[in-house]
Every structure is written in structure tokens, then in C-alpha cells.
Design brief:
The protein contains five helices and 40 strands. The chain is mainly beta. The chain is globular, with a radius of gyration of 23 Å. The relative contact order is 0.13. InterPro entries: Carotenoid_Oase. Belongs to the carotenoid oxygenase family. One of its GO terms (cellular component) is chloroplast.
């Protein structure tokens, strides 16, 4: 006797022809049920459904009500449930060596009651887990239980300052109190909705740009375990949302808003103590440039000083400005500083052309025949020094897009060349023709074995125009100056994350994982071959997930 697979809410999450056994010991159905024709750039491929779920773990929260004004495209729609977990149908074949967990963090809840948030970056954090084991796939998601989220859930109103949102004040005294809490950091959010990293000691931490928004989670259950409290006395309110983390190292930057500059710090595995390597003083002003991310090489930390600078006045305003907590200061110029990891000394500090970037891709050292470093090469997703990308990410803009206008600002792989010969100026060039990836470029990953080293391949989100948001996955060949692109019309893919095959000797020997929000309000996990960039498997979610930001890999 066979039965349909149902979720705990009674909704049939699989098509009716996908049948599973009543016997719970039957962990896998060995026959083929159907084939799906999957369109990809005008081509079709047959993927055989090889695995199906035998049991769905129950959800613990009923679906949230639909938010007025939100369209079919689920990428910009609040998550339907607070949590869910279950095994998914796999179409195609997942490599047997792929055993571990991909975690993806990002904003996933953009409303409280009838109040809708303004900006993509405001949403309360939704952590998604995709666990791979022996060719099978289990997916789950859960809200990160930050103090900001718990307070909002309890009171049904905003209680902390988010990226563009400020709590509404009942009277003037409450406004004054909020300002006092802003300077102390008490009113800043701990909504850890940006990234997730696995530390060298195995702890998994979700992050945002506020230091208090560092939250430890369980990668298996997605339980929120508590705050990641730093045991040092460095203080500060903000840090880079993207520390550089390996099995043996942790580096991050702490912007100094009072005496403009950056502390470069490191933390040993197994500790919570940050130690100062050195300090970079800003060459421009009136405040440090935004450092959402930064790169490093084998021996150097690269500190970007972007003319998009923090702005205390904007933080004090009750309503957001077009650049939110930042301000564009082209007259202050742009700079790149290079610090020695070992000594903390500044070995190069050069002026570079104006730039706007959220995400650096990688950096490496150029050496002469005698092995001496002659320059640093640092690559990033660069928006042609156009700050309008921030306002394009307002939810109203994302949700109201008709599909006809081409409104996504151009972007490229910006390559900084920082000479070590004492020259006062560095260069900023395109690492390849931006038309190769549709003049869209963001959300990047590389083979982690090549972090800080000369590398050939990167994976990112590009564009198939017209569009209002990066809508392709692209594999960049930086040696040949070429790109391979994956595109599903009307869909929004999240960050392509590369996982290397154990024992691989080639840089692109592995798979690329992404989560896709499609045009029909549904979604799926996508697995591409890292070398050919062809689809090898996908697994449909029980319902579409909102767009997410950044992820990490936790090996089994």
C-alpha cells in the first residue's frame, strides 16, 4: 500500500505521482517515477527522479498570512513558516562524495502585522539548511532567535534599529531615550541576517555588521544557542559582516567612527578573544569607508577605504536617506591599504579610482623571478562607483518590477593592482569584459583552497538583461577572460557556493550549490558541476523561499 507524502499542515508537498511506501523502513524508492524537462538557455535536459522523501518532519508554526502587495515572485516575500524540515525529491544525481551541510543565511521576514519593511537588508534572519548524505537531501529552515526578532514577535512592532528601519517613538522623551541607546549601542539590532561562518573550532556563527549581532547556532537543528560574546576589551559597535575564516585563522576589521580608521584584528580557534594586529588611519574623511568585506593574501591583509563612508548624521534620522547610514564623498577619494599579517606594518597605501563594492572575491601576491612581492592583485564585485545600487534594493522596487525595463546598474569584476614599488597610485581595471556576465556581478565564491592565492575561477551572480536584480549564475574564467552562464527565465538565484571534491587536484573539480526562487512562487535547490557548469541535480522545496545572502559549508 502506498500513500502520498504530506506535511504536518496537511498540504501535499509533492506531485500526486510521487508515491512513497507506508513502511518507514523503506528509506528509498529504487524505481524511476518520472522525468522532468528542464529548460536552460533554450536547451532541455532529462533528469531522472532518483530519491523521494519517506517522512516529513512536522512544522512548528502555521503559515503566516500573505502580506498585501507582495507578488508571485517569492524571492521578495516573507517566509511562510517559522520553521520546517523534511527530505526532498532529488531530480538527477547528487555525487556520493558530497556529504555535509550547506547553510545559507539572509533576511526572510519583512513584515510585522500589517507593517512592511522598506529594504531587503531589514528582514529578520532566516537560516536555511541543506544536508547532503549518500545522494539524498534534507532541507530545513528556521528563524534566528535574535533579541530583535523575539522582541518584535512578542510586541508585534519594531523594537531595534534595522538597516533602514527605526522604532516609532510614542513621544519626545522616548525619542531622546532612543538616541541615548543608539550611542551606547543598546538600540542597534542584533538581527544576524547577513552571513554564516564555521569557525576553526567547529562553532557556527551567524553575523551582521553590528558586533552584538554575532549569534551561535546549531548546524544540525538550526537552534539558536546564544550570543557569541567577545572576551576582549576592544569594544566598538560595528565590524565587517564578512570576516575571513579558515580552519586556523579568523580576521576582521573594526571601523573606528571617532578617530577615522580601522583596527585589524585576529582570533585564534577555540577562543573569543580578538587581538589587534595593527591599525590603519583613513587618508580621506570625514569618516571611515564602509567595509562590508575585505580580502587577504598569504601574507597581507588588504584594507579598502571606499568613498562611500559611514555617516553619523544619517544614523540619527528617523527616516532613511537614499544612502541610508552612509554618505558618498567622492572628494575624499578612494584608497587601498596593505598590512603585513605578521608585523601589523602598513607596507603599501595607494590612491585608487573611485569605487563601490559590497563583496571582494579574492586577492593574491604577484612575485618576480626571485620570489619578491611586486604587487597585490585584489578582485571585487565593483558597481562602477555607482551608489544607486543601495536604493535599488528597496523592497518596493524589487516587488514592483514589470520585467521590461533594464534598471540593474552595471557591475564588473573590478581588479585592483597595488604596486609595491612606492608608487602613490594603484589601478582599477575590469578583470574581464563585463558583457561576458551581462554587466551584472555580485554574490561570489571561490574554491577555498585558493583563498589568498593566485586563482583562475570564481562563481557569482550575473545578469540576463533586461532585469532589476542579478538573475544568472556565472562561472568566471579569469585566465581566459570568459564566463559560462546558467539562467532560468524569471527566477532569482542566490549566491553560488563552491564545494570542492575531496582529493581534487583541479581548481574547479567540485559542485556549485545555489537556492533558486522561481517565477511561479516556488523554489528549488540547484547543484551544478563546478567544471562544466552544467546542471546535475535539483530538489524542489515544499514552498518557495525568500532570497538569501551568504552561506558556508559544514563537512560531515
Amino acid at each position: 500500500m502506498a500513500s502520498l507524502a504530506f506535511s504536518a499542515t496537511g498540504t501535499n508537498v509533492f506531485p500526486s505521482y510521487m508515491m512513497v511506501s507506508d513502511n518507514p523502513r523503506h528509506a528509498r524508492v529504487g524505481c524511476t517515477f518520472a522525468k522532468a524537462d528542464l529548460k536552460k538557455k533554450g536547451k532541455t535536459r532529462d533528469l531522472t527522479i532518483t530519491n523521494v522523501a519517506t517522512e516529513l518532519r512536522p512544522s512548528v508554526s502555521p503559515p503566516a498570512k500573505e502580506v498585501a502587495g507582495e507578488g508571485k515572485l517569492v524571492a521578495w516575500t516573507s517566509i511562510q513558516q517559522e520553521r520546517w524540515e523534511g527530505e526532498l525529491v532529488v531530480e538527477g544525481e547528487i555525487p556520493q562524495w558530497l556529504n555535509g551541510t550547506y547553510l545559507r543565511n539572509g533576511p526572510g521576514l519583512w513584515h510585522l502585522g500589517d507593517y512592511n519593511f522598506r529594504h531587503l537588508f531589514d528582514g529578520y534572519a532566516t537560516l536555511v539548511r541543506i544536508h547532503f548524505e549518500n545522494g539524498r537531501l534534507v532541507m530545513g529552515h528556521r528563524q534566528i532567535e535574535s533579541e530583535a526578532y523575539k522582541a518584535a514577535k512578542k510586541s508585534n512592532k519594531l523594537c531595534y534599529r534595522e538597516f533602514s528601519e527605526v522604532p516609532k517613538h510614542d513621544n519626545f522623551l522616548s525619542y531622546i531615550g532612543d538616541l541615548a541607546n543608539l550611542f551606547s549601542g543598546a538600540s542597534l539590532t542584533d538581527n544576524a541576517n547577513t552571513g554564516v561562518v564555521k569557525l576553526g573550532d567547529g562553532r557556527v556563527v551567524c553575523l551582521t555588521e553590528t558586533i552584538k549581532g554575532s549569534i551561535v547556532v546549531d548546524p544540525d537543528t538550526l537552534d539558536t544557542l546564544g550570543k557569541f560574546d567577545y572576551s576582549d576589551s576592544l569594544g566598538g559597535l560595528i565590524h565587517s559582516a564578512h570576516p575571513i575564516v579558515t580552519d586556523t585563522e579568523f580576521f576582521t576589521l573594526l571601523p573606528d567612527l571617532v578617530n577615522p580608521g580601522y583596527l585589524v584584528v585576529k582570533m585564534e580557534p577555540g577562543t573569543n578573544e580578538r587581538k589587534v594586529i595593527g591599525r590603519v588611519s583613513c587618508r580621506g574623511g570625514p569618516a571611515p569607508g564602509w567595509v562590508h568585506s575585505f580580502p587577504m593574501t598569504e601574507h597581507y591583509i588588504i584594507v579598502p577605504e571606499m568613498p562611500l563612508r559611514y555617516c553619523a548624521q544619517n544614523l540619527l534620522k528617523a527616516e532613511p536617506t537614499p544612502l541610508y547610514k552612509f554618505e558618498w564623498h567622492p572628494d575624499s577619494k578612494g584608497f587601498i591599504h596593505v598590512m603585513c599579517k605578521a608585523s601589523g606594518n602598513i607596507v603599501a597605501s595607494v590612491e585608487v579610482p573611485l569605487f563601490v563594492t559590497f563583496h571582494f572575491i579574492n586577492a593574491y601576491e604577484e612575485k618576480d623571478e626571485d620570489g619578491r612581492v611586486t604587487a597585490i592583485i585584489a578582485d571585487c564585485c565593483e558597481h562602477n562607483s555607482d551608489t544607486t545600487i543601495l536604493d535599488k534594493l528597496r523592497l518596493e522596487n524589487l516587488r514592483s518590477y514589470s520585467g521590461e525595463e533594464d534598471v540593474l546598474p552595471d557591475a564588473r569584476v573590478g581588479r585592483f593592482i597595488i604596486p609595491f614599488d612606492g608608487s602613490p597610485n594603484g589601478k582599477l581595471v575590469a578583470a574581464l569584459n563585463p558583457d561576458e556576465h551581462g554587466r551584472g556581478m555580485d554574490m561570489c565564491s571561490i574554491n577555498p583552497a585558493f583563498l589568498g592565492k593566485k586563482y583562475r575561477y570564481a562563481y557569482a551572480c550575473g545578469a540576463e538583461r533586461p532585469c532589476n536584480f542579478p538573475n544568472t549564475l556565472t562561472k568566471l574564467d579569469l585566465f581566459e577572460g570568459k564566463a559560462k552562464n546558467w539562467y532560468d527565465e524569471g527566477a532569482v538565484p542566490s549566491e553560488p557556493f563552491f564545494v570542492a571534491r575531496p582529493g581534487a587536484t583541479e581548481e574547479d573539480d567540485g559542485v556549485v550549490i545555489s537556492m533558486i526562487s522561481d517565477k511561479n512562487g516556488e523554489g528549488y535547490a540547484l547543484i551544478l558541476d563546478g567544471s562544466s557548469f552544467e546542471e546535475i541535480a535539483r530538489a524542489k522545496f515544499p514552498y518557495g523561499l525568500p532570497y538569501g545572502l551568504h552561506g558556508c559549508w559544514v563537512p560531515k
